[in-house]
Design brief:
single chain; alpha/beta; Rossmann fold; 2 domains; six-stranded parallel sheet; 16 strands; 27% strand; globular; binds ribose-5-phosphate
Length: 294
């Protein structure tokens, strides 16, 4: 196995420490100063010429400044002669992987271009929104999945009663299938329509009975909580006993938690790609395992 140095970006100090401990490698902290006007300044104090560096920086809100911090750090590391791999546990902009309305920018394509332009040689992310997004990158990118880990965590920590896994939209069908197969339970995918202008979500009804059963909603991202809330309202109406919302990336913007709770969600479980109180499922060994094979 190669000898790695793990560089912790300011957004991912704990996760970087976990990756470095899994790889038994040196951990260094990228120094970041924020000026009063909001600009970030990055400083790399170590000598890293010819070293293989894994730079870890998740792009949860505020995504633009976290992205710039990542670009600055990667630029400095590669300028100094390091071979830079970027670990971007939550890859912001991955939902804009195509033009949905005329005139829209394919944001992920621009992000892919920027990441390459600063000398990043390869990227590892977790549960990219859709496989289509991977095609926008011209450097190797690997999307690892936290879904089996979420399933293991939920099965270990909740005494589930006749569980059923639910995808709130067709886009997450493959994820719910993977989750259900790990848990050994049934699954159902709902159809969701989002108004591309207002963002409003409508979820189509299904004829299912869930009385006395525990339902686990599985998604890649929970942002405003709207998709999960709409789905939970239906599950409650169909008789679900308990509703758990499981996701890889818990962005939880604004009143997302309250909205989901009011809709009947009892528990929220996420991975630690985004450090918050719901990020209980640690993905550091998953990320490290990719580098162990190089
Ligand atoms: C989109 O299709 C994603 O998979 C998620 O369902 C979506 O990002 C969730 O967003 P929100 O929580 O705002 O409904």
């Amino acid at each position: 196995m190669k000898e790695w140095v793990v560089a912790a970006g300011p957004a991912s100090l704990d996760l970087a420490a976990g990756v470095s401990s899994n790889l038994a490698s040196r951990l260094l902290k990228i120094e970041m100063t924020e000026f009063p006007d909001g600009e970030s300044k990055i400083r790399v104090k170590d000598e890293l010429r010819n070293k293989s560096v894994i730079l870890v920086q998740s792009l949860y809100p505020p995504p633009d400044s976290r992205l710039l911090q990542l670009l600055f750090a990667a630029h400095k590391l590669s300028e100094d002669g390091a071979d830079v791999s970027a670990v971007i546990p939550y890859l912001a902009y991955s939902r804009q992987d195509k033009q949905f309305l005329e005139g829209e920018v394919v944001s992920l394509g621009v992000v892919a271009h920027l990441l390459r332009s600063v000398g990043i040689r390869r990227i590892v992310t977790v549960d990219i929104h859709s496989a289509q997004g991977l095609g926008l990158f011209s450097i190797p990118i690997y999307s690892s999945s936290a879904i089996p880990l979420l399933a293991d965590y939920i099965s270990k920590n909740f005494d589930l009663v006749r569980p059923i896994a639910i995808s709130p939209d067709l886009g997450s069908s493959n994820r719910v299938e993977a989750f259900a197969s790990r848990l050994g339970c049934e699954y159902v995918s709902f159809k969701k329509n989002r108004d591309r202008v207002t963002g409003e979500v409508k979820t189509e009804e299904k004829e299912i009975l869930l009385s006395g059963r525990d339902a686990v909603i599985v998604d890649d991202i929970i942002s405003t909580g709207g998709s999960v809330a709409k789905c939970a309202e239906l599950l409650k109406r169909y008789g679900a006993r308990r509703i758990i919302a499981a996701c890889t990336h818990a962005l939880l913007v604004g009143s997302a938690e309250q909205k989901m709770k009011e809709a009947g969600v009892n528990e929220i479980i996420a991975s630690n790609t985004i450090p918050n109180r719901y990020g209980k499922v640690d993905v550091s060994s998953l990320i490290a395992s990719y580098f162990q094979t190089l």
